[in-house]
């Protein structure tokens, strides 16, 4: 994760990662798939209004989605209308750069796929006061009313990664009785990189 307190360091060193995404992909390809059918996944209960945070990484089960291997996390929810999911994806390591852009698979009670909208995400910078102090990607998606099961996995790399636009940062200092704004960093654009692992925080809303 990446906190606001390291904004200047992230601006200077953005793009540096402990493990490149290509290496993470190579590790994924060595993993054995857990199941032959989506009905064999382990589904955890998620109630409406509940939130949960979890890693999608080398310790997660692996399945082939449309021929491509991915780590996965699966949930069981109650069938109802007018529901949605909000999703946060935190950056891997201390810097803004590498993240998991998840795809969301909706299944009915017979484990048949349901049509749904793709999860679009945008960059949200961390805030020192109020809100999440860690920078992250954020998005939301509506849930088809017949959905009983929800599965998170990696989105196709065919889609371009997002760009993080940092806001200018600074502080207020006093010159006698006069407040003066001192800029510590200017806004900067950072090209982001998708990876097959990440930390997600989701909320089932209505």
Query: In DSSP terms, counting alpha (H) and pi (I) runs of 4 or more, how many helices?
Result: 2
Report the β-strand fraction as a percent range. Answer: 35-45%
- Report Rg: 19 Å
What is the number of strand segments?
18
* H-E order: EHHEEEEEEEEEEEEEEEEE
What's the N-to-C terminus distance? 28 Å
Arithmetic mean pLDDT: 83
Structural class category: mainly beta
Molecular shape = globular
Helix content: under 10%
Number of structural domains: 1
Question: How would you portray this structure in words?
Answer:
Helix content is 8%, strand content 44%. With 206 residues, the protein is mainly beta. It has one domain. Strands 1, 3, 7, 10, 11 and 18 form a six-stranded antiparallel beta sheet that branches. Strands 2-6-12-9 form a four-stranded mixed beta sheet, with no helix packed on it. Strands 4-5 form a two-stranded antiparallel sheet.
Helices and strands, with pairings:
Blueprint: E1 2-3, H1 7-13, H2 21-29, E2 43-45, E3 51-56, E4 62-65, E5 68-71, E6 73-76, E7 83-90, E8 98-99, E9 102-107, E10 120-124, E11 134-143, E12 149-154, E13 163-165, E14 169-175, E15 178-185, E16 189-191, E17 193-194, E18 198-205
Parallel strand pairs: 2-6, 8-17
Antiparallel strand pairs: 1-11, 3-18, 4-5, 6-12, 7-11, 7-18, 9-12, 10-11, 13-16, 14-15
